[in-house]
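Page 42, continued from yesterday. The earlier attempt failed because a stray header line got pasted into the input along with the sequence. Redoing it now with the clean sequence only.
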Amino acid sequence: MSVYDARLGRRAVLAGAAALGLAGTAACSNDGRGASGAGNDAATQTKIRPTYERYTGVKPDLAGAEYNIPDAFNKYPANPVQAITEAPGDGKPITVTTYTNTPIPPKLEQNTFWQEFNKRVGSPVQVNLTPSVDYDKKFATVVAGDQLGDLFVVGGIPQKPQMLAAKAVDLTPHLSGDNIKKYPYLANLPEVAWNSGMFDGKIYGVPIPRGAISSQVMYSRGDILKAQGLNPEVKSADEFLELCKGLTNKKLNRFALATAPTQFVRNMFGIPNNWSKDGDKLVSNLEHDGHEEVFAILQKLWKSGYIHPDAYAGQNLDMKTRFANGSSPLVQDTLSGWPTYLQTFTDDNAEIAIIAPPKHDGSGAGNVWLGSPAIGVTAISKKAEARVDTLLGYLNFLATPFGTQEYLFRKFGLPGVHHKLVDGNPVLNAKGFSEVQLGLMYQADGPWTIFLPEKAGSAENQFNAMKTVIPTALADPAAGLYSETSNRKSKQIGDAINQVTDDIVQGRKPVSAWAPAVKKWKSDGGDKIADELAQALKAAG
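This time it went through. Structure tokens are written below.
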């Protein structure tokens, strides 16, 4: 795949990019057969796409548009504006079905933030939270039992277009074109993110934008590397192995890597981001001929004891804990995790940095994979159609941007209760970190902003780190395209190939097991997914 193919232009991105994560893919459908539907060509999407009106109420300290990264701010405005003058609620309960990547918060009765949040919304908000790893299963259950909330984040489920047509409100009359201006903070969401909510020429959901911030990178504990005199600027796979060797100290129960760095090593070999284009066809990155060398490196890391022995047994929060307490100074994670790491450090001198992937042979810089424009889509249940204005108003409230009173409260709670001011910036305390985790950012959100008040200089550090790797990041040409076979089979065949990956890395299977596993993945549905996505990509124009 050429670099040109991997870095899509704006027109191509608007036609095809969107969420590939928990909310599943979107933008194209054909009534369950997998190819693109009549209503999902680029012209139709352009016709119904909401008008974009960027919020310009605050000027960033570091502007990111040139680099395709978020704006960064060192200070929260001393006098934030009030963005919402009238509470969006109607006094009736608002029920929400969504997921979370953080600990479940205290119940309403013990949660001061939740109580105040309900007052400001003007309706009691009832959130049904499920850990992200279990959400697709839970979503299928609530759909089958007809127990969806008034608002629900769309999970992976067979025949998703049909499900949305049956269960979700068609939001096109409310959000297409200039209609969205009634909800100015939804109009501030990036144009490309809306593809994830479009099916059969209709808008069925509000996207939860992320983009570059959801790209995965190799985090490092800069303070630990400095203390040991280790150079974080590795220029080859061999230098990365040496770095991991230097960071591992079993007497101190320290293992360089919190988890296996599979994607990071793939980035060293130019392996595409999910798919690559070959004429009118799409080719899975599983077929890339660099995998044998990738596995050889991963096997060395595991066999040498540089990867934490519980890497395959723990949960997402475990790897964050290992990085935060220094027992694993390297961890592969999304850039959106930066604030959580700062908030959970046990050492005030801890520093976050990233290690950019080199080409494995030392011939230059590698390429990270660009994150999807949206991580989810929130739809409105047909049972709540009479309250569509109220519910869109609530999502508009959740999308209020950085620099507003609403954003400050949503992210940091009440002053003196959930956060303290440090040099004029809000910093969450333990009560705040616990209580604000209502999954609000997994219902709706404004465009991501780099604001890291926990430690001076952190916003600039993350901005500069992103500026280093994101401009050359590889995009997924099939991002946002719909495949019914993928919806039905991707988890099953993906779990199977991932198990073979784990077995090879841990030495339970030889590297030679990879080729037959990929062949089986292709015959079990991978080839059909590729064909359906290629048809959808062609239709998207």
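Notes: The two ends are 19 Å apart (CA to CA).
Reminder to self: strip header lines before submitting.
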